[in-house]
V-set and transmembrane domain containing 5
Amino acid sequence: GLGLWLSVEQEVGQGVSLYIPQPAINATVEEDILLSVDYSCHGIPTIEWKYTSSWGVQKIVEWKPGTQANISQSHKDRVCTFDNGSIQLFSVGVRDSGSYIVTVTERLGSSRFGTIVLHVSEILYEDLHFVAVFLAFLVAVAALLISLMWVCNKCAYKFQRKRRHKLKESTTEEIELQDVEC
């Protein structure tokens, strides 16, 4: 019976350890977000996620890895659970900003909790790249137009000088040809 006693003591001493690789997440509207955690403990724990905001606390989901998750009505079809304790939120909105608290409880009762703060913004950071590309494009177009105007201006100037020296019998046809030439 000594081996059994040792393993129980080890179990009690060990408890639950919880690791959160990314405690703060910045997201944009309509993004799918992974609230990533990892835990270690003896046996199969109960994992629970709650959401807290200025409105109060709301339970999202509770499950034992390997079993069906009990997802609250407010998050039905918006949450996916993983056996390592992580959850994925689909198509987040600004209203999803807040603190997400995960609690991992061992069957002997010891538990650990961790918090992930999610900030969802309207401004799409991907759009900054688009804006930069668009601005570069505008600058290129502006440069092209300026150089075209300069070339045309030079052409027109040459054309005017030539026209001034032309003889009176020169036809408009010749002038048009002159224009095409430059």
In short: The chain has three helices and eleven strands.
